[in-house]
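Entry for the shared binder. Reason: the reviewer on the internal report wants the predicted structure included alongside the sequence.
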Amino acid sequence: MRKKKVTKKLEFPLIESIDNALNRFFDPDHPEAPTTALELPTYLQDNLKHHLRPYQKQALLHLAWTLQQPDTIQYRQLLFNMATGSGKTDIMAAIILYLYAEKGYHNFLFVANTNAVVAKTQDNLLNSAAEKYLYQMPITINGEHLEIKAVTRYPEFPEVGVIYLRLTTIQTLTNELSSPRENGLTYEALARQKLIILADEAHHFSAQTKSKADQLNSSWENVLDRVRQGNSANRQFEFTATIDVQEEAIYQKYRDKIVYRYNLSQFIKEGYSKRVYRLQANNDDAGKMLNAVLLSQYRKRLAHSLGIDEFKPVILFKSNKIAVSKATRQAFLAQIDQLNAHDLGQFIRQQQRTSASQALKLAYDYWLTQDLATAVVEIKRDFQMLNTINVNDTAKEGIVGDLNDLRNLNTLESPENPFRAIFAVAKLSEGWDVLNLYDIVRIGEQPTTLNQTNSEAQLIGRGARYNPFSYHGQQSYTRRFDNEKPAYQLLESLYYHTINEPKYLENLKQALDKLDLPVEEDSDFDVFATTVKASFKRTKTYRDGQLYYNVVENIPDDAFTSLARYGIDTTTIAEVNLVDSTQEVDYNAGANHSDALTETRRVLEFKSDPAIVKKALARNHFFRFNHLRNHYIPTLKSMREFCMSDNWLGGIRLFARVARDTEPLNRMQQLQAIEQYLTYVQKQITNNFHRQRGTNRFQAMPMAQLVRDYQKRVPRNFNNKTVAEWIQPYAMSGKPWYVYEDAIVDKLEKASIDLIGSFIKRFQKKYTTIYLIRNEERNSDFKLHDFGENITHYVGFMPDFILYLGNSCVNYQIYVEPKGTQLLDQDQWKENLLLKIRPDRVQVIGEDHQVRLYGVPFYTTGDGRNIEGMLQQKNLL
């Protein structure tokens, strides 16, 4: 059995030093704060086509800090370790302007491993007519117009206002410097003027120790070292997404050179890329290809129905041999040419019976409602030979080694570009910045080695780049459909259609983990659907009825004066769990643990040991003073106040749950405990800082707007529980008071429905209208917001059920929220809000005399908080 490789927790001292220093820059009351703030000049954003994202600004600030330090060898070679698709070339474009304006650099040398990357970057930085050119024209800094000029060698006397840029492969540079020719580069010529080296895909230039075959890479590394060391003013900035810092030689080389890190999982989590799913298919290649076409064409139609007219989803069919790739294209074209409506219908119906994929089920359900003859004509037109392309690559040149292919593939998003299907070997994929790739189909019996799956994982990572299509007239560079219907999410998801073979899947998972690329298994989910009962749709209640939620109002900045305003109680003991770092941390004050194998130990009072608290704060970018002040805590005056004031962290008394009979907490464990608690603080601040708060005025939403058909995507295994123990559909036929055909709920929610059901006969004595409505989050944003004095939670919450009771005189609307015991403490504010809702404390806009609103206590197992008693007390039952 192969031993599982242990991932080491690594430290990067340079990043930590910069984080600590930037905290001083951004906290004006810090005793070591400099007299002038560190900030990016406005000319950077003014001259860049794309708006710099927060993490890109942070990367540039990290670099700016190093440039303010004494000129030592430590800062002459730096590495930006940033996710694929995170815009490293935008950062290079900014660096060129910054180093010219601030440090007087005219000469820049861009090197990469393939012609494809060089050609792509040439369009990005030099070709102002290219669609992906990164600068605004004209480039102007402090009133001076700048020109960026391509050169093969640098002039002896640079002109004012001119930046000289040489782009080349490392192979060409190495050959040129090794065998000097007339008008070529030489080490001596390069040493006469200061130079900035921009090394892209820098993992190819890193020191390797695994085999003699890597000596070539080492020679490339030596070439760059010699160029950099030729002039003491030279600097080398390297960029890569895939450097393996778990390799000891790589870590030792770069531990003090990595200036900024932004990993792929964070990039995806923050919404800057597509979500990635894996489809494990038992189909043959023909079945996988047709499934991809149906899914892709469904996406296109869906986008057009939403007004996204220029949406063109692309499929990549990936093979491992050029001959296989060419044969696959011919087989695909023949399959499309022979397609007919009868065969297509049979294929869809057969697949519908066996597929566990939510995405494919959506596509199948859609196509079976359409005219398949029309669909076949459309598919034949969109996937005809002229709209497919075969790009055969070599390990040397990459996926886009042919420059004509490069132009075709790097303009795939353009409406004028006809290609919908790409056939490629795809051994390497650097230099391919495709945005509208939505399906990758693995073709044939390919090797299942780690090397093979590593290249596949890198290809998936590049395909995950977000497609910033325009929707409702707005272009977004982050996902916007995460909380919308599953169908809409297809427009922001990449699907990797692969084989269902255990060894291959194990290797692929290892490769994806190594890249820090989160990929979900589409087959890990069941999709349950339900519809509104036809009988309910015929009622006047459905047609004309209204449901009520409270109006919100803007909150003044001076309301955010303490952590209590963000739902954090600083007056009681705070606790974290150090027993097992994989467990969910319990931050509830005074939590009662019965585990005899653990005990609680005091960590510290925050104000008593500010040094370690500041260290923990410095390790988390969220807690930068300018970030807190500008985005979340407008009343904050300084980081000292944040650390020491009882209104903020100063009042925190932190304890940790640890294994019994272990050694006293050391300094690292204390730091770990503080960091865990600060993660909780960050979550509370971000969740509860909203510029709006609830009021006691309730407004109407049409019943039909909330009560709609819906489907729910449910994990097949949730914390080792089966769906039967978690969420499943319960048939509600024979229960006319429940408005949906099925209740898709967990056991606790089902028990609350049964409780209401037990009241029906008593309700019927008082009301002619009795309905229980599921408030499904996919149908609307029907939320309640806390109101009144001393609000501590500004984020709204969606009550799970609304009980609607009516007679000829009045309509009652009662909010019901089931709650598991593990959530009672942290969600107590929600119950407090529910209990505030009663007729004498709220105003129903427009219909105050006809509508009565009530909230009831949480439903807990066995009606432990006595909803029945409250209904009786209020004379509702």
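Summary line for the report: The first strand starts at residue 77 and ends at 82.
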